[in-house]
Fold this protein.
Amino acid sequence: MGSGNSVNANYKYSLQKSENAFKAAVLIQQWYRRYVARLEMRRRCTWRIFQSIEYACEQDQIKLHNFFSYLMDHFTPSSSKERDFISRMFISGESFKEAELEKYCDYESLEVPDSYTGPRLSFPLLPDHATALLEAFKQKQQLHARYVLNLLHETRKHLKQLPNISHVSTCYSEEVTVCGDLHGQLDDLFLIFYKNGLPSPSKSYVFNGDFVDRGKQSLEILIVLFTFLLIYPKEVHLNRGNHEDHMVNLRYGFAKEVMQKYKVHGKKILKMIQNVFCWLPLATLIDQKVLIIHGGISDTTDLDMLEKIQRNKFISVLRGKKRKESNRNVEIQELNGETKVEADPPGSETAPSLPLQPRPSQAPSMANKLEFSRWVRQTVQEQIDWCRRLVDISESEDEELTYSSVVSLTDLDKPCWTRQEECKQILDILWSDPMPQEGCRANTVRGGGCYFGPDVTEKILEKHNLQFLIRSHECKQEGYEFCHNRKVLTIFSASNYYEIGSNRGAYVKLGPDLVPHFVQYQANKTAHTLTMTQRQGFPVALVEESAFRALREKLFAHTSALISAFKAYDKDNTGRITLSNWATAVESVLHLGLPWRMLRPQLVRSTADGMLEYKSWLNDLAMEQRSQEHIQSSLLEVIYRNRSNLETIFRIIDRDHSGLISFEEFHQTWKLFSSHMNIELTDDGINDLVRSIDFNKDGNIDFNEFLEAFRLVKQSQ
């Protein structure tokens, strides 16, 4: 009996123990699931903050250039000096002819000193040159300016021979590797080559744009990619991204990086890169089934049109679209004989008599494009014949005389598109993003391109007999993401893009079956040394802290607007509003589309009665920023809000990228702005202003002095 009772007791004890263990396991599981859910919620909120701020900055960039386009369309230069300044400031990047560019960027005149210990290049390039470059860049060495210019010269020559849409086949290699945005992060490129192998006759690569900006080694990435492009022209393919644009580079760091690394020859290098960028192909087709473009498509995207566009005309798709279009209209008017001829001023010398220039017949309607093209060909031929008679040249010299400034003779039988139509085609494929909803609408978040839905994707796939699209342009937490029923694949190759641990990078490999295989990575030494638990929590906390710091800066930069918005809810002027009204007011000012009620605990201290003393809260924000910048609060707010735009404006004016602008450039710029803002500022007034901000009296204005000018004018208003 005694032993039986003992067995039962042991059994009950074991059962109770198992039951307790099971309950503990369930509780731990529930706790862990809640923890992971909270972690994921924090991660998504952080992600929303980073993306909203990034896209708002891109929107500011496009607004800034729309503003400059408006200025250009509505400002009439009053003197030859002003006309020359406008030309240098906005269109000099497009004015270099072939011979002028080669003369300006003459690499042969540069001598490499014996003391130079970096890699040396000789052309044609060999695989050993690429290996030497990779090793040199790992050791933080710099390639001599002569070799950089020589490489850019050879790259430009090669790119000019390529079509707008590159064609790649998996028949000639085992697979094709597609990489997305790199954004100056050389470690990511090194890791891709380490995992996947270097480009070779059996290893094809497509790099889908955005090689530069934001990261610190954009130039090294370009040098490596251009080197492999020249060594393996059939295996390496480069697409243009929205950051392969000179005007974008002025804002996001690449222009500054080049000038810091090459202080003597940086201007020449930038000019060559600017020209190389406009020759990059716009898209790549794999086996005629997979279309690779940087951004996306729109409901007006036409691949046939993209194949025929003269892509090098668009050094920047952001710059002067209206003005360029008006120039085209002037050209057509000139062909029609409608140009207004100003009367010679009194006392001017009469030019020698010249053969009468043929007056073109009336142009047919542009609606009939074939008839219009024939008319243009006839008109151009008449103009060429007149030029021959004028200079008495023979028929044998036909090839030397072209009329390319009006229209390319080789394209006369092709459809006649306006520059604005062509620009929109390129803008859409470089700047657009997919959306889950049907249809196509303007991309107001970025400020350029469009949002395209699944129906737009299906339409272009069906029209061109494609299987799916690969695009980049958007940072994804896992490095890649499918949408539109797996018909659109986003691939992003810059890991830790916002902050260490914020996202993985990825690339995709396609074999003859065109089934995508993904490889993910994180190119950061810190991330590899973390334990599993630390990898779950630590990166989130680090990224979250960085995101909220950026958000607080954004809030502080809009202090004045926030006060006005808060006062609208504070009718009795108590200095207090509800937290719900706080969230509504903040969104009405910042327009970031963030879940402010969810973010509130990280931004606002909790109160017992649910009310917020908004002036005290804003003072706390100001104190936090002033602890980093020892400047008065009102000025600091203005600088935080406008610094990126002001720095971009400064770099546009600073045409030689010296970091200084002359008194004359400052004078003409301020006159341009004041005419737009209806501020009456005399020449003497501008001269007094420029002298007052030239603190070191060196006859030039640096960026800090430029900010001071902005503050002084702001104060006067």
About this structure: The first helix runs from residue 2 to 74.
